[in-house]
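Notebook, p. 212. Picked up where the previous page left off. The plan for this session was modest: take the two constructs that came back from the sequencing core last week, fold each one, and keep the raw output in the notebook itself so nobody has to go hunting through shared drives later. Recording the first one now, exactly as returned: residue sequence, then the structure token string.
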Amino acid sequence: MPTLYSIQHDNQLIEYQIHYSKRKTLAISVYPDRRVIVKAPTELPQTTVADIVQQRAAWIQRKQQMFAAMPAKAPPLRYVEGESHSFLGQAYVMQLRQGAVERVYRQADCLTVISRRPYDSVHLKKQVQAWYRQQALIIFQQRLQHCHAQMRHLDIPFPCLAVRQMKRRWGSCSLKGKILLNTTLVKTPLPCIDYVIIHELCHFIEFNHSAAFYQLLSSIMPDWQQRKTELHQISVLE
């Protein structure tokens, strides 16, 4: 069993593990189960590690509180009749129909899937995920244009957009002028989508999470914290 170290902060105990390896820098990670793992250079004394953990204690507690407030992970989708599927923050009931020409469409509160094999959940999953990807490309491009226009005064070049299914991230960007968004983001409300896009666009000015980055983000989207909280409360990541 790994050794647990601990510090006190605001009358609360923070326990952590240290994983030593041949690395040059120290990194602290907080996991959804609230475990704290410190990856440290082999030659770094344990007392020095403790001092750094103490300095980051407030951040560690915020991350642990965020994970504690998250809803329990939703059970895996089964792609069956009557199952609920989200799109832009709204819930739709899946209806399955057999047909030679495959198609997915929304009507009222239903997500109708016409499939050659409506009894095959693996086939249905691929079909529905392809539809989500198609919708994501359209909607994300529209929202990127909208958000980029809000930041026109910053002279940010219009970035290339790509979408991909990701398990742990809503989006990312590169200094080469590309934004990558999680396809699953299309299941969340538009204000959440805009938050992720604005967040990534701000990184083209401040490629970090410094105070300057958050000042910029707040100047463009004053309610970003509320949107971020809403996004973290949505259990749609697969």
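Okay, moving on. Second construct, recorded in the same format:
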Amino acid sequence: MSQSKILVDTNAYLRLAKTIHPLLSTPFGEKKYCLYILPELNKELANAKFENKFPWIWDVEYKENRQHFPSIGTKQKKQIKQTNEYVWEYVQTDIPGPSRTDALYIAHSIELQIPVVTDDQDMKELAISFDTEAMSTLELLRIMLDSGHIKMKAITSLCSYWRYIGDIPANLDADFARLFPT
């Protein structure tokens, strides 16, 4: 069975990678879910604001884990490039907010027909506009829990940590209650 690829954007990566390591390119569950980033995430992490807030991102083990990208054929690369241009034009005229990298993630999601994990509400709105799947970090954690990849204790610890550092995903409480009813 082939992998069920899922793209992880910057905010989701930063929320998960320290606790669930290695996060990327490690198949889990019956569907062989496998998480990937785009090379542009590494470029975003070069920003000093990330280095100061998340100094662990430059540890060798995390840098090495971020070298795994989805394999994309030449024809798909061309389609992604065209789709990205169209998505970026749409962002500039109809839905300001998403970044160029966000548009690129959406273009990959469209052309590769794979979901993207993000807690960025503008990016989710963009995904809806292009009828592609965007899931929250908590939705990904639900998949991981159902696949036996993580335990509920890790999820509650993560949510507590996010609250502690003030990095709370949008709709955290409502999504948590919906996805992890007691």
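Notes on construct two before I forget. The radius of gyration is 16 Å.
Flagging for discussion at group meeting.
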